[in-house]
UniProtKB/TrEMBL annotation:
Residues 1-22 form the signal peptide. It comes from Capsicum baccatum. It comes from the Eukaryota. The keyword Repeat applies. This is Leucine-rich repeat-containing N-terminal plant-type domain-containing protein. One of its GO terms (biological process) is defense response to fungus. InterPro entries: Leu-rich_rpt, LRR_dom_sf, LRR_N_plant-typ, RLP23-like. Pfam families: LRR_1, LRRNT_2. The lineage of its organism: Eukaryota, Viridiplantae, Streptophyta, Embryophyta, Tracheophyta. Its main location: membrane. Residues 31-50, 75-89 form the Leucine-rich repeat-containing N-terminal plant-type domain. Keywords: Glycoprotein, Leucine-rich repeat, Membrane, Repeat, Signal, Transmembrane, Transmembrane helix. GO terms for cellular component: membrane. The keyword DNA damage does not apply. It is a single-pass type I membrane protein.
């Protein structure tokens, strides 16, 4: 009888493991990450007069940019993984990608932004927005999981912070700084 139970266990074990770790089960983003995204959203206004003709029909990783602008369209009652521009890990629910390309965001990007609480971010695209001529925060260097960072055409000025060089997993970096003196790095 014990032998039958053992055989049955080994036959069912792969099925049980698949069921337990199935990505088809919903994994909601953690509340602290949803809260951080909502705080980040409140820092900016949408500029309805911003021209976005160049934003249409651009592709990145086979996504078509037709859902312009992305506005972090969620609220406290919805899972942030379902918000436009937010992508989550299917297993953990952690926010791993924030794509706000061409979202007509306008305002000041503060160095204490709640964005820096999203420690699992691998992809961050804030390009083609208007962050009011501020310098790039050194805190971007604390997002240690980043593989892609795009801050181009977003009205940043000044030097590229040395802390960005600490992003050891970074594979792609796009920075276009609006500065009459050109790009500079701090040494």
């Amino acid at each position: 009888m014990n032998c039958v139970k053992l055989v049955l266990f080994f036959m069912l074990y792969p099925f049980l493991c698949q069921l337990a770790f199935s990505s088809s089960l919903p994994h909601f983003c953690p509340k602290h990450q949803a809260h951080a995204l909502l705080q980040f959203k409140q820092m900016f206004t949408l500029n309805p007069n911003a021209s976005g003709d160049y934003c249409f029909n651009m592709t990145r990783t086979s996504r078509l940019y037709l859902s312009y602008p992305r506005t972090l369209s969620g609220n406290k009652s919805t899972d942030c993984c379902s918000w436009n521009g937010v992508y989550c890990d299917e297993m953990t629910g952690q926010v791993i990608e924030l794509d706000l390309f061409c979202s007509r965001l306008q305002g000041k990007f503060h160095s204490n932004s709640s964005l820096f609480q999203l420690s699992s971010l691998k992809w961050l695209d804030l390009s083609n927005n208007n962050f009011s001529g501020l310098i790039i925060s050194p805190k971007f260097g604390e997002l240690s999981s980043l593989t892609h960072l795009d801050l181009s055409h977003s009205c940043f000025i000044g030097v590229i912070p040395a802390e960005i060089s600490h992003l050891s997993k970074l594979q792609a970096l796009r920075i276009w700084i609006y500065d009459p003196y050109g790009l500079r790095t701090v040494t």
